[in-house]
## 1
Amino acid sequence: MKTAMPPVVVQSGQALRMVGCGILHKEVDYLIGKNGWNVETHYLDSSLHNYLGKLSQQLDTALADYERQGRETVVFYGCCHPRIDSLLESHHTLRTQGQNCIVMLLGYEKFMEELERGAYFLLEDWALTWEPMITQAFGNNLAVVREIFHSSHKYIVAIRTPCSLDFQAAATAAAAFIDLPLVWMDTDLAHLEAVLAEAIARKQVA
């Protein structure tokens, strides 16, 4: 994706508010700082992907609050809720383009290449909260949890970015918990940067 970096956003003297998933919060904050974008962030818990009702409610509440404040917003989410685009339309805003955060980080081709091999993608934020997040969503029966993952995945690919800390122990424990092999992938932030730039640029002319 080739997108020129947009100029600093000016919205009536106020920063653009980016509301989105906290799964890549370190990476997004880094890119905002690197490019000098006049953007402030509001992150929602990354575990909301497991609870669609809570996700839509919290996103709706955040956008409504900023509307009342007269603030312009842009949303950092993929197709993480079946009605996300209609929700954003009702708030006169838009989101980053991409099916999910992994597509935005790696690009569609790399994502599909690994997905077709049976990958489950693990980012640092999820690795650090893995067992309680998984058992809260799927229950405490380990055999059932493993069956859920084994039915559609052959291995876990843990993704490291330039912003990642050392989460090797957490990733190893996550893979062992669901009894899947663990592999590692390193990626830069070029694709994510282009995705964010494109959304900010569209918001400036929307």
## 2
Amino acid sequence: MKILLVEDDEFIGESIKEYFELQGNKVDYFNSPTKALEVIYPNKYDIFLIDINMPEMNGYEFYEELKNYAKDIPVIFITAYSDINHMEKAFNLGAADYIKKPFDLKELELRTKRLVFKNTNIVKITDNYYFDLNKLKLFYKDKEVELSQNEKYFLELLVKNRGQVVDLNTLKDYVWDGKNICDNTIRTRVKKLRAKLKENFIKNVRGSGYKIEKE
């Protein structure tokens, strides 16, 4: 998963970031909503985790800005408020979930995975290959294929977009955090990944990007 986290309490924010990254996820953490808005575009995220009570602008206002960019991405509001009015406002804005402080990080993980993966955490690629979106692991006949972290993110993105071409700019942004790498670097990495596979299910669409065909 790629997560956008905005939380002005740095202890809480760093704790959430560390916890999710230890599970193999990517977390962009900001303690300032205005700074987040300055740099997040055009990153693509699987879920937003947003504190409500923040300086500069509150979580509701921040989410209104985000909806102009990615209205279909689920959001979980994080808050110390316990009254029903704040919960009602969050859900009226389109929140997918709402969690009250203090909370167990495992609970936040479970709520996040429920929204991102729903019932599609295991994705069949071919008769022999499947990809576990929860753990970012590829399996061949129930045996795990050893992958680098970049290879895991690469396959995650292609699996989530099966049947569609994922363009090179999106790959650079998601897999390499928008670093200024050349197209040849991507081709070289894909070649190394294919060398680990017994079936070539990664299709190159010349001049556009890569895709995995739907079954």
## 3
Amino acid sequence: MALNKSLYVQDCAAGCSTWPMNQVHILLGLLAALAYGSSDFAAGIGGRGVGATRVALSVHLLALISAVAGLAIFPSHALNWSTTAWGILAGLSSVIGTLSLYRGLAIGQMSVVAPVSGVVAAGLPAIVGLLGGDHLSSTATVGLVLALPAIAMVSFQTTDHAASDKRRTTGLLEGALGGAGFGCLFISIDHAGGDAGTWPLIIGFSVACLVLVLVVFRSRARPSRSPRLWAAVAAAGLLAGTANLLFLGASLSGELTIVSVLTALYPAVTIVLARLLLDERWNRIQIAGLGAAAIAVLLISWG
């Protein structure tokens, strides 16, 4: 897959001449984090009235459309059983991650669920990347080491109410499972290779949609008809589709360890939006976590 990445970097550099070639993956990874974080926020809003399963299905349908359109950006040169298998794994991982995260966002506190998912989503691909031979500079390594606790600090909450404690605990469990799903999604996208273009995403999200249709069909809950909530769901789907393409580009132009950690900083975006639009409050540890995350990004970029 090293050859695929090398060729992609050359092509991308030709169209992004104003950005240093060895920094393209950092820019794309951060943009993916921005899109994923915004998508999760919008999904959390829609999930409280539409239902997690219907939100997940809608998001995957729109992500599938985005992946098909992405063939114009990532043309396919080869499709084999290996990339197909990685695509199927990506789809199943996305279903598990999305349902868990959306359920957590709907029943738990947004500024807790999203950061926990980010820690796990960053940790799994980072471990796989390091075991697979990724090489980091000392500066980037320090940034990587700082990034994971930074996300954990952002998730820290205090409360004296038993009901709130139970709500937070549920959110933590759902967030962790969601992060595991997304971590496997990142790994699958990276290992599918660049020759297949966006076909692994197309295959994966097609499988995910089939699974989610069955889940929605068995659901008896009646979704809200609020145009505002469905607009939030549509925004979540379009943002998620964009984020997937950005992550694909980042993984092809850089090492999985760095790209996955940068992308997994998406909870910072989610909690900022939650603070600005939902008036969810931060404590001092969360503020310190945001500062640590910013420093981690700088160190990784300089590395």
## 4
Amino acid sequence: MNELVLYRHQGSAAIITLNRPEKRNALCRELIQALTRAFQKAQVDDQARAVILTGNGSAFCAGMDLEELRSTLDANSEIIWNDALALSTLFDLIYRLPKPTIAAVNGHAVAGGAGLMTICDCALSVPEAKMGYPEVRLGLVAAIVLPHLLRHVGERFARYLLLTGELVDANQARGHGLINETVPAEKLMDRALEIAESFAKGGPHALAVTKQLLAQYSKQAESVEAAAHASAAPRLGEECRAGLNAFFSKQMAPWVKADSVR
């Protein structure tokens, strides 16, 4: 079995690669655990002055693993809570990492995948990538990433993304501050490494303190547990269950009128 997450050094950077290309790097429990271990490793890795997160294959990350999600339709609250807490803990680990992080978005970044992109300090994307948070269309709530999204794009665009569930292209995302740059695929990693080397010119302690202050002043008030609860609670309700059942049956969600579908 291939490693779900690859970890290597190049220059001053540790490159962490999601390695489920056959599943479009969808986030299963094992991948979330492996990502958590990789970022914990990067945190204490003296050779890594910055961290680049990217995906193997055509997608950066397609969100939650649908097969695993389907298996939780009748799961008890403890399983759903543990899943939400694991993802919330990973996001908080990346957000508070004392080293700069760069998302090198090599393809579509959707739902939890868009969340991974959003919590990094810097994000680069190939022009053809699409990104967004379509959770509400399944009766889910993108609670864990919501405060991070607000910091980047402001409330108006965040409301559009979160309430419509629409995906936007990389140019739209750049125009609203969700990503920093669009870069051709063949130059994506080179550009990410350039930025990592720029970060490495800063003192390690100075960078760590700057990131600590950024977290403090951004008023990221929600705890890991509160974010996990806000994410888990809708999955225990009938609306989410109905939305997921409709999705897996390739039917419209019960709240969607047939004549409203384009």
